[in-house]
Amino acid sequence: MLAELFLDAAAICREHSPLTHTLLVSAADDLTRGGITAKVMAGSECDRGGTVPGLRFAGALHRLVLEGRAPTLAAHYPSAGGRPHLPTLWQDALPVLDEHADELRALIASTVVQTNEPGRSAPLFGGLHTATHLAAEAAGRRTPFCVKLLEVGASGGLNLRPHRVAYRVGDTVLGDPGSPLVLDAGWTGRPPVDLAHQHLRLVGRAGCDLNPVDVSTEDGRLHLSSFVWADQLPRFRRLQAALDLALLDPVPVRRAAGPEWLVDQLARPERDVLTVVWHSVVWQYASPADRAMGRAVLADAAARATPMAPLALLVFEPRRTHPDRYEFQLLLRLWPGGVSLRLGSGAGHGIPFEWHTRPWV
Ligand SMILES: C[S@@+](CC[C@H](N)C(=O)[O-])C[C@H]1O[C@@H](n2cnc3c(N)ncnc32)[C@H](O)[C@@H]1O
Fold first, then answer.
1. What percentage of the chain carries pLDDT values higher than 70?
2. What is the average pLDDT across 282-297?
């Protein structure tokens, strides 16, 4: 039942977003009474829990706020310069729901919840440095390889500029100090290579997604912004800075399923280039068929890799560490040579992150 799905979504945000939590609990109550929320959600009553109808509802309202079309509600939204006043939040939401019911209903029915977390560029940056260094060592080269970065499940492609981000690490800034996107990397420990004296050179970048977001458009920017909980201001600001960086340095994301796309991208190994296949928080969404084909495509490409045209798989994905616990781990495999490492683990959004190199088995 829809009201229960709203309460499930409310439970997910209770700790991190009091605003979204309050909104969804009130909306669930309104749904059971057959209020305006039922009109807004008409047609979505039988949606599967996995499509998270509650977060689609909250995202659609957030979008109206970000567009400047719900000023009374915006007064509660930090992402729009407001301050939440939870006791009056729902009474200020009601007129907005009433006025925009048809538009909200259409938006909720046609969108999927989608995020793109630029904080994940920080573990990616350290992981790429490690990979280029280890691949060079294996090939007997003195200088690290240049990188061709291929991202599967790139969403809006916001992690396709790891070399153009400024990373504050201790009292140093790594990456591009002039970047509009500055990340406090929150690192404990360091990657197992010297980052201060190495330059990450990317000679090719490409991404694919089943639902690519075109972040060069206002629509794409609003789509990604609307699914960040409005009272998570640091996360929201990080996203806006990453969107600004993307406008300065566009990298299109192709509409495609990962494995089919990789067949083309990996067809010819490139000499003097380390090809890196990267994905973050995608594996759980891939179908069993896509997972099996993805493994096969990669194994095929790995067999063609040579010391001077190496291949890496670098992933940041949740892995079960206990029956009821997950850890977001950064994992690296290199071909040829058989390097297989767990480089560290961190928060789901990539920040903070702890580097601790161990075998990946
Ligand atoms: C949680 S988002 C993560 C986006 C991005 N990787 C990040 O870390 O911010 C998962 C993304 O994977 C995409 N996706 C899921 N299965 C896919 C597949 N088989 N091929 C390509 N993209 C896929 C979804 O469309 C979605 O954009």
1. 100
2. 95
pLDDT tens digit sequence for 188-212: 999 999 887 778 999 999 999 999 9
Among 94, 110, 126, where does a domain finish?
110
Alpha carbons 123 and 120: distance in angstroms, whole number: 6
In this predicted model, what pLDDT tens digit does every residue of 238-287 receive, in sequence order? 999 999 999 999 999 999 999 999 999 999 999 999 999 999 999 999 99
Backbone angles phi, psi at 4, to 5 degrees: -70, -40
d(Cα 113, Cα 211) in Å, to the nearest integer?
A: 10
The boundaries of the domain holding residue 345 are 118-213+231-359
Is residue 289 located within the same domain as residue 164? Answer: yes
Question: In ligand 1, which atom is closest to the CA atom of 155?
Answer: 27
Is the same domain home to 325 and 235?
yes
Return the best residue to mutate from 112, 165, 209 for the ligand 1 pocket (most ligand atoms within 8 A of CB): 209
- Work out how many domains the chain is built from and give that number: 2
Q: Are residues 41 and 137 in the same domain?
A: no
- The answer to whether residue 117 scores a pLDDT higher than 80 is yes
